[in-house]
Design goal:
Rossmann fold, 9 helices, globular, four-stranded parallel sheet, single chain, 10% strand
C-alpha cells in the first residue's frame, strides 16, 4: 500500500502562526524536503526589493485593516502602499455592473481604472474547436472568454496592478499567467453560491456532503 503524504492541510496545530504548540513530524516548516524552497524564498525576500515591498505592504494592510475594511477597500490601501496608480480590471461580462461600481470607487479615490471584459474580441467558441453542443446555449452565437487578450491589453495599457472580477475557473489562471502586473482578486465567481465559494466548504459535512460521499467522476481519467 502506498504511503500517504501529509502536508499543511492535514495539520491542526497552526504552530507556524503563533508558536503556541508543537510542529508535527510531517510539518513543512521543519521538513528536510522543504528546506531548500524555504531558503530560496528567504533569499528572494532579501534580494528582490519589489517582492519585499509587496510582501510588507500586504502584511501592513492586514494589520491595519483586519476585520475592519472590506476587500474593495483593502485593495485600494494595498495599491496605495505599492505606488499603484493605474488599476486594471479583468472582468467577467456577467459582472460588468460590479466592475463599473468598482471603477467608480477607484476614480473617487484618485486611481485610474482600466477595464477589459472577458469577451473582448468577440470570437466564436468554434474557433477553439468546441462543438455547438458544448456551448452554454447551443444554437446561438457564443464568444469564447479571452483572458489572454485581457492580460495582453492590460499589459499594453501599462497597468500597475490588475484585479480579477469574476473570471471563470481556468480563465483566471490564464489571465494570471499572461499578466505583466501583479494580480489580486476582488470577486471569485460562483453562480450557485452568490460568489461565495466557501459556502460549499462550510456545508461539506451537511448539504454538500455529496462532494465527499460520492465520486464526481466515473474513472480517474476524467
Amino acid at each position: 500500500m502506498e504511503k500517504k503524504t501529509f502536508s499543511c492541510v492535514h495539520c491542526g496545530t497552526r504552530n507556524c502562526r503563533n508558536h503556541k504548540s508543537q510542529y508535527p513530524d510531517f510539518c513543512l516548516t521543519i521538513g528536510a524536503d522543504t528546506q531548500a524552497p524555504l531558503e530560496e524564498s528567504w533569499r528572494i525576500y532579501a534580494e528582490n526589493d519589489e517582492v519585499r515591498k509587496i510582501a510588507v505592504a500586504s502584511a501592513q494592510v492586514e494589520a491595519e485593516h483586519y476585520c475592519q475594511a472590506p476587500r474593495v477597500e483593502e485593495i485600494m490601501y494595498f495599491a496605495k502602499k505599492i505606488g499603484a496608480k493605474k488599476i486594471g480590471i479583468a472582468t467577467c461580462v456577467g459582472l460588468i455592473d460590479e466592475s463599473r461600481a468598482f471603477a467608480k470607487i477607484l476614480e473617487a479615490q484618485g486611481f485610474e481604472p482600466y477595464g477589459v471584459v472577458c469577451k473582448v474580441g468577440s470570437h466564436p467558441k468554434e474557433e477553439l474547436g468546441m462543438a455547438d453542443s458544448e456551448k452554454v446555449r447551443p444554437g446561438t452565437f457564443e464568444a469564447y472568454c479571452n483572458p489572454v487578450a485581457q492580460a495582453l491589453i492590460l499589459n499594453e495599457a501599462k497597468t500597475d496592478l490588475n484585479v480579477i472580477v469574476g473570471l471563470c475557473v481556468g480563465h483566471d489562471s490564464l489571465f494570471i499567467k499572461y499578466s505583466d502586473a501583479i494580480v489580486t482578486t476582488l470577486v471569485t465567481k460562483d453562480r450557485v453560491l452568490a460568489h461565495n465559494p466557501c459556502g460549499a466548504l462550510y456545508t461539506s459535512s451537511s448539504y454538500y456532503s455529496r462532494l465527499i460521499d460520492k465520486p464526481l467522476f466515473d474513472d480517474e481519467s476524467k
